[in-house]
Each structure stands twice: as C-alpha cells, then as structure tokens.
Amino acid sequence: MRHPLDTLDWPIPTERLLLRRATPDDLDATWAFWKLPATHEWLTVATENYDDYRERFLREERLVDLLIIELDGRVIGDLALMIQDAWAQHEVAEQAKGVQAELGWTLDPAYGGKGYATEAVRALIDIAFKRLGLRRLHAECFYDNKASWRLMERVGMRREQHTVRDSLHRTKGWLDGLSYALLAEEWPTHE
C-alpha cells in the first residue's frame, strides 16, 4: 500500500527551508546531530553508536515517516509524521483509519533559537491538514524537555494532558509527561 506522503510532490519549500523525504543517503547527515548529547538526551531511542543508528535509520518503517529539513542544502534536522488510525467503535472503525498522526522532530542544536524548528513544524502541520486531509495531530514529550513543549505551543498546539511521573527517562528516572494536539479546524488561523 502506498504511504500518504508518497502522494505529494517533494521537495516542499518554506520561507527559508526545504522539506523533503528522507533517503538512505541522509544517514550520515542525521547521525551528526542525533549523536550529540543535547539531542540524544530527549530522543525516544538511545542510539549509542553509528552501526546501531545505521541499522535503525535504514529500516523501511522508519524512513517511510521521515522528512528531512534542509537549510541552503545542508541537513539541519528531521521531522516525523506517523499516520495512525483513531480509536473508534467497531461499526465505524473504517472511517477512523489513517485520519490522524503523531508528530516528531529533531533539530541540530547548532541551528536552535533561529525559528527553524517552528517554521518546519508549521509546514509539516500544513502538509498534514491541507495536503493529506488529516483531522488531528498530536505530540508528546517529557515535561523537562521545555524546548519541545514550547515549540508545540508556538505552533498552536493545545496542551491536553500533563501526567505526573508516568514517563520513564533513561537517566533522569520517572518524569512528568505532556501531550499536545491540534485539530484541522483549529489550523486555518495559522495560514
């Protein structure tokens, strides 16, 4: 079955950036910032060495959801759009297939504080709602990852849940977690 991202014309430009589908050739460029301690601290999967990262990166199920953020031809980050089915009762389950997505992002810390992540995530939201017709987007992070939840708020996502010490961090122990979401009908104000 064809992935919904395959139906779009890539690359997609923003004001300063270029978003495109990830390819195996992006392995080294993404490893350059994924391995950094400032980035590595908040990633869901700790990839300790290049060989482990290569194996994980090259999995088809990883590449299919991954987009690359370029600035003047240089890879400065990546985005994930993991399309999912919504929860539904059995009788209407078909209508809930592939209607929402989880968002994710990783930005090279050297490019932080310049609005690139905000610009890229806004473009991703626009793609999800206006080009793919999704109805709902969500993202999660540790409460301690302030850069991530502040980004969610900057792009207009709504905090839906603050859980108390339900999220286990590999070095920090049990931390609070946050969930944010945005509906398609809430997005037009961000055109």
From TrEMBL:
Source species of the chain: Actinomadura logoneensis
This protein's name: N-acetyltransferase
Chain ranges of the N-acetyltransferase domain? 17-185
Which domain of life does the UniProt lineage start with? Bacteria
PANTHER family named in the record: GNAT FAMILY, PUTATIVE (AFU_ORTHOLOGUE AFUA_3G00765)-RELATED-RELATED (PTHR43792), N-ACETYLTRANSFERASE DOMAIN-CONTAINING PROTEIN (PTHR43792:SF1)
| CDD domains recorded | NAT_SF
UniProt xrefs under Gene3D superfamilies: 3.40.630.30
Pfam families (alphabetical): Acetyltransf_3 (PF13302)
Keyword annotations from UniProtKB, A to Z: Transferase
GO MF term (any one) = acyltransferase activity, transferring groups other than amino-acyl groups
